[in-house]
Fold each of these.
Amino acid sequence: MFNNFSKKALRILKKVDIFSQPVLLLIKQEQGHKTLFGACLTSGLISFFLYLLIVNLFDLRQGKNLTSLSTEIYHTQPHQFKLDETNFTLTFAIQSPSFKTYIDESVYVVEAKIQTKITRITDNEKIDEWTQQDLPLTKCNPELIRQVELQQYFSQLDLTTNYCIDWNKIKELDLEGTFDSLVYRAILLEFKICNDLTKKSKECKSRDEIKKQLEQNYFSFQMPSYVVDVKNDKHPFLSKGEDIFTTISSKIFKEISIYMQPITVFTDIGIINEDYEVQNTLRYKRHTEMIDLNESDLIMNVVIRLDQIEQQYYRNYTKIQIIISKMGGLWQVFFTLAFLIQKPINMLSYYVKILNSLFEFEQEQKKPIKNQKQENPNPETLQQEFSSRQQLQSTKEILFIQNKKKSLQRLQSIKRKKKQIEAIESLALDPQSKEETKKQLTKAISFSIKQYFLSISKKLKMRWTDYLYFINCFVNSKNYKSLQIQYSFKKIIKQMDVLYILKKLQEIDKLKMILLTESQIKIFDYLQKPTIPLDPDSAQFSVTQNYYSILKPRKNDYQKAVDAEIAFKDLVENLDNPINMKLINSIDQTIVDLLKMRKDSLDVISEGDVCISGQRYDRNAVLSIDINQRNSS
Ligand SMILES: *[C@@H]1O[C@H](CO)[C@@H](O)[C@H](O)[C@H]1NC(C)=O
Ligand SMILES: *[C@@H]1O[C@H](CO)[C@@H](O)[C@H](O)[C@H]1NC(C)=O
Ligand SMILES: *[C@@H]1O[C@H](CO)[C@@H](O)[C@H](O)[C@H]1NC(C)=O
């Protein structure tokens, strides 16, 4: 009971196997019919796709198939950005009307600060706390320009007449937030007229003198910025110098705000998954100027602060699975196209293969009657009628005659070799060399027999033009092959039906019923299956078991021919048996030619060959002559 259940469970479990081996019929030891054209098409298709895949993967490595999109993000409170000597450089000074920058602390002084406002909320009340940190400035020199990419840009300035951040005294500075946010930090540069309160290292000039000198001046200011190149996969930020230039005057007070925009590039560097690499920096976005007409000792304030709008760039590279699935789609299209081209050719070639193994086909060139007529032409009446046809046919016929001659030559050479083998027996040679020469001759005969069969084969040989006829559905009445194929195809298509095969199996059952008695049939079921011994190659085994067609030993062409020859001799000598008579009469003439080559009748056959070559007799007639001769002898 339990045993039964477990068996059932096993059977059900086995049904899950999706890798089951389908039951197949083979054709010529292959699972399907394959053609050379199909093989070429397949390799063409595969190499094309390999090429595409390699090109695509190469592009992927190069970052060529990139998609990018940019968005803007609004921040109420931009987060902190640190700046240091490698990515922040400032140069600025006031310019005289002749556009020459100058530093003169007896005229104007600059105070630089990092201004911080922290808003505290206590009891619903906002309290702003301002703190300031000095930003050390100094007269510029090339050593202070430490941003490598922009050294070239800044070297064009007259550095010693400009102010710079003194990187020897400060390591880094930062910007954060906006004016409304809880934390706000910005750089503030205050330009003031030199007076008792503001004076630094130098004594101030007289007030009128200063006012006059500053009446019509310019302000020159340089800072680093970036442009974004999304196509550059390693370094999307390209440094550039930003130059701000404006007028100033002692008569007005200017307030300039320079807004720095955060830019972020998200690069998807994952090959299969998304894996974003984030790069960010600040760039100059815009500046605003406000003018106050109140005359005071202030010339200008410059504030460097963050912008609230962040620019973001997303860069996606095509993923490997996307490439592969795209290629899969493309493959479907190309495969379908190739399939449409290949399918009819394959079908035709498949049926031709089946037809060739089932039928023999009369070859188009064979026109023996005309051949004969040409040999004895009637000069008066036939000349004109045939001259045109003759020209048309002549090439074909020459081919045919050559073919025929070839097969005859082969027959002759087989005969010669057989004679040689027999001659060796009578020669006085040592047995070993005799054996060897025999072996060689046997091999040669075997080869000749193969060639003979090739030369007399009546198979349909398809040329590519024949395929074109069929694919165009253009059946040329002059194209005998298409007629032959159509006819024979109709004949076999029924037999390829599984119902037909089942019917035939049933017929065998019926035959069994008719041929065997009831008790014989009962025993029949117990007939032993062929048993494969430990050494299947042993000679004894092949002799005892070879009535099973499945175990018939493989013989070479020569051996087969020799066997057939002996069997033929046997049949000819027992012509009383009607089956023998029928059998002989159904053998192809050309094969009879081969079989008739026997030691005792060599001369007779050479006469017969002459007959065959000269003129095609009715097959049965030839045989009857031959048989008559045998009976009389
Ligand atoms: C890039 O990846 C992001 C993140 O998944 C996605 O939202 C976006 O649509 C992708 N862009 C393109 C152009 O494929
Ligand atoms: C400047 O460089 C520092 C150190 O390399 C880095 O922490 C900072 O984020 C950079 N700032 C910008 C705006 O690129
Ligand atoms: C403008 O100047 C007047 C008089 O000189 C002074 O009272 C006033 O406070 C100044 N305003 C500002 C904003 O400095």
Amino acid sequence: MKSGEEGSNGKATTTAAENFLEYGGYHHHGRHFSTVVLQITVLFVVVGFSCLVLYHTAYPTQFFQSFYNPNPTSENSTTHDDAMQSNFSSPFQDSPSANLSSLGNENNLERVLNKAAMKDKTVIITTLNAAWTEPNSIFDLFVESFRIGNQTQDLLNHVVFVALDEKAYSRCLGLHPHCYALSTDGIDFSGEAFFMSEDYLKMMWRRIDFLRVVLEMGYNFIFSDADVMWLRNPFHQFHSDGDFQIACDHYWYNYTDLDNSPNGGFNYVKSNNKTKQFYRFWYESKDKFPGKA
Ligand SMILES: *[C@@H]1O[C@H](CO)[C@@H](O)[C@H](O)[C@H]1NC(C)=O
Ligand SMILES: *[C@@H]1O[C@H](CO)[C@@H](O)[C@H](O)[C@H]1NC(C)=O
Ligand SMILES: *[C@@H]1O[C@H](CO)[C@@H](O)[C@H](O)[C@H]1NC(C)=O
Ligand SMILES: *[C@@H]1O[C@H](CO)[C@@H](O)[C@H](O)[C@H]1NC(C)=O
Ligand SMILES: *[C@@H]1O[C@H](CO)[C@@H](O)[C@H](O)[C@H]1NC(C)=O
Ligand SMILES: *[C@@H]1O[C@H](CO)[C@@H](O)[C@H](O)[C@H]1NC(C)=O
């Protein structure tokens, strides 16, 4: 529907698709690790483009280690509904033996999603770890972007923060109504995870599996990395008939071109049989194609 360039040759297209599946659409901008300046992702919603162009840092948690405050005054979980019901520390307490079903987290997730969802069962999901929830770090900037953005204030009510560790969970509970604690057997995601390191990959696979569960539960989602600033309402830009729409690093003015360098840091997925199957396949490719990522 948009102006386009000539399609690329089949080989290049296939390679791009394979890379995307293998690496889970990780965004890679390792060069930014060396800069001290915080690179904030800016979400450009470009009128007339069917692609969201994102500028990303990879996982710059190391920038925030020094902001650690052991007693954040804003932490206020005791009066919170979720804190009471989820027994607060339990999601991470029993690691490494903890598993989702034994913790009853699926029910908990259903409740969190239900509360956060828009009328059409769409939620906005982002993940957080301890380093990103330090005061004055990514978490605060992310929330701030919704407050100052154009038509984004209401969207904040539909954001679910998925905490990867206990500290992130407790800080979320103090500041936001929709928090979910995602435990992972024997893995501590609270610290820095360098791009393509073993922990980073585990975290990315865990995320894909988690999003699969969200789809299976019948919820559509926008997944947004927490370092994406929501300054405009992206819903105006989506194709109404798209099942899976993803940001890309390089856009070739053709929204079906597989060479568009998809970037997993921002995507919009509608829950239906096709997308459920796609996420199952994507997650299973972790074992079907070992050594690829
Ligand atoms: C904790 O949260 C409750 C309800 O949101 C609020 O009334 C109270 O002032 C908060 N306390 C602190 C210390 O932030
Ligand atoms: C929280 O979990 C602990 C350990 O599983 C249990 O002893 C305690 O009773 C629970 N508290 C609530 C309020 O459910
Ligand atoms: C996970 O939970 C299920 C259901 O409660 C249980 O059958 C299984 O043994 C648990 N696995 C581990 C590793 O605890
Ligand atoms: C806010 O977004 C709407 C819809 O995309 C647009 O029409 C309007 O011009 C924007 N306002 C500002 C101040 O950018
Ligand atoms: C867009 O990309 C697809 C897939 O590569 C290709 O088949 C199609 O011809 C392209 N469309 C245009 C207008 O270039
Ligand atoms: C989706 O899959 C389920 C189970 O395989 C099937 O019962 C249902 O008819 C499918 N729905 C559509 C719209 O294809």
